């Protein structure tokens, strides 16, 4: 039976005095859910995962798996990895090259104190069938391809039905095509088994497909934990917005705010209406983030209509990217389709739908 | 096209010259050894008229009971020694690479010291420590009333001394394998529910099995070719191994050179098979490097147990470095080795320089030091130059015949030093006006013996010089020779200096091949030390051991400093 993971105020310092690698991270994973930790390298996502596995020893906070506390440094409590009833899939596969596929998968059943017994052969066969390696059981693992090795690793971590499955960038050593195939299959397998999962990646596409919820991390802190749709449409801060692809930034000053709506003065370009998760005050410096996909060129909508000039056009076949000048600031716009409709060095109408413009406090002006 | 005629002849001439030099250094002595083993005459001395080769003679020697005994003694001593070396080397590599044992950098460095100790010095030190009657350890046991006595003049003694001194060979292989192993392979096992102990024996050790095997084969081969340790510890108990037996045959009166040659061939065959097996393992696909990525190795937090592992390391270093050194110092400075009780040990009146005075009163002492240095320098210069020529030709050109050069220069890997000595003796003893009786025969034998190591260490530095650097010089209009002189040699200088240094050090501590090639005028330190030991004067032996060790240490430091200077010099240039 899978159970929840609870992390409270997790902290990990590798040496006293340096910035903690994980800094006050808290979140829950309800049973049966897959949570993805997303962030650039060095953000602390892997360290968090390894703390849950027990391979790193946290310096603060509490981790519970099921209803059992497995790590709480304040009380000197630390359960060893082998007694946490977890499964783990590593980036480098970590399948044992001196064993066959079957020996790899049977290994946990042979050496676990609990969960052993039963018909090992049958359980191994079932699990190999589940990951699509039914016919490879007797092969030496070194004869397999990278994708197949990762399936072996997955089977090895599923075979004993652990309470919690940890996946540490399991797809990033695979080539692009295989990565996409295995990604979709991974979701199918995890959902078929009803596993509770914690998945770490730096790839947004993976995070969106696999995660029931996504947690974005930066500098050891968890910035936002929400379902994929919310991360993509309501990013909680400018880093999340930028990391998930909202690369356009317009700088301005807050004129007024009412609830989650703000009016920003962009200077020469005029005013813009935007959504904001922050309590901006009039007069604050602000940055408005938006996706290139959400810039409507040549359209006059109901609100946020501007006039700009196409500086550069980059035709890419399936889409066209435009660099547009907007009142002295630059904006990137993306137009789908094989025909480019706007010419270089022409004035063009631009609509920026208010729901897709997100205003955040400009860090340069932030004094809190 | 104005191809200059000398150019066209240059390459084949060069290749032929290298092949002839190598044939002269390696093939000719080996052929003579084989001839010797297959007959009961020496074709050089007796003329080819009397030479009737047949397997009969060789088979007779191989069927001899004494040869069997020496053979099985050698297998037992080296086999036992290897098992012990694996246990020590593997534990050490695990302690140093995988645990948080305190001072592990120091432990790693210090545990390499045994590699530099000449085997005979080690043997002498342990005979002073653990000979059955007068051994210092037994004396101490008597003081404190323990009834137990150790006896290293035995198979057990040989095994222990072999094991503790050649553990670093195993360590070198297993430590780098552990270092290069993907830590998640072990983490996966731990997460799967296996205990640390289970993980060690089902994942870690099986994964580095190739390294363990390669390291133990190497240490076995090295032990098999060692003369000093069995000469010091086996001889008093009449335990002969192959090396000591071969020497005994040549010291017979009249010397049984043909029999010695046959036994030497036997030793060479065994060595060659093992070296071949070891090379196969090393070139085969190694498990541990499958991931081919740099890792920060896992460090196991041992808690309070880390002081236990630290203690183990200290005990090892004490046994292998401190104890023998102490024994040599006491024996060298004490006028009489008999020590009545603890007070007598610290009675300063019993100490003095008398043994050193005796050693240096012997004119042979200075002569041997002088000879050793001369042989070392000659070996380093000739060997270094030859290795450079071979290394360049094999690695940097596509001339026909380079494969043959490569093969010829690799053969000596499989020939123990003692066998090289017998072969050179056999090949040169009868030649009138020849090399026998000069220090040149020693130097040539050393060059032949160590050419594979020298070429290998030089080749590494060649590989670091990009081929384009040379091609650029050619484009600039330089010729081949001038390119080598102006581009390759300056860039490879640290490698060349390091290789010559290595050769020099190897040459001055070589005993096995010297034994057969010295004469009273050309005696070297290692041989003279054996003379002192067999003469039975423990004090003089210990004193000269210390002198030899001190000279070796000074030279090692000096050459190390020299090659470091060379490396820095080239860093400035490059």
What would you note in describing this structure?
The complex is a heterodimer of chains A (368) and B (574). With 368 residues, chain A is an alpha+beta fold. Chain A has 2 domains: 5-233, 3-Layer(aba) Sandwich (Rossmann fold), CATH 3.40.50; 246-361, Nucleic acid-binding proteins (OB fold (Dihydrolipoamide Acetyltransferase, E2P)), CATH 2.40.50. Chain A is 22% helix and 34% strand. Chain A contains 8 helices and 21 strands. Chain A has helices at residues 45-53, 101-111, 120-130, 146-158, 176-193, 204-210, 228-233, 238-243; strands at residues 5-12, 22-29, 34-38, 60-65, 68-72, 77-78, 86-89, 164-168, 197-201, 213-218, 221-226, 248-258, 261-265, 271-275, 285-290, 296-297, 305-315, 319-326, 329-336, 347-351, 358-361. In chain A, strand 18 and strand 19 form a beta hairpin. In chain A, helix 3 packs across helix 4 (146-158). Chain A is globular and about 75 Å long. The mean pLDDT of chain A is 91. Chain B is mainly alpha-helical. Chain B has 2 domains: 65-351, MetI-like fold (Orthogonal Bundle); 358-569, MetI-like (MetI-like fold, Orthogonal Bundle). Chain B contains 26 helices and no strands. Chain B starts with a helix and ends with a helix. Residues 1-6, 288-292 and 569-574 of chain B have low confidence and may be disordered. Chains A and B meet through strand 7, helix 2 and helix 4 of A and helix 9 and helix 10 of B.
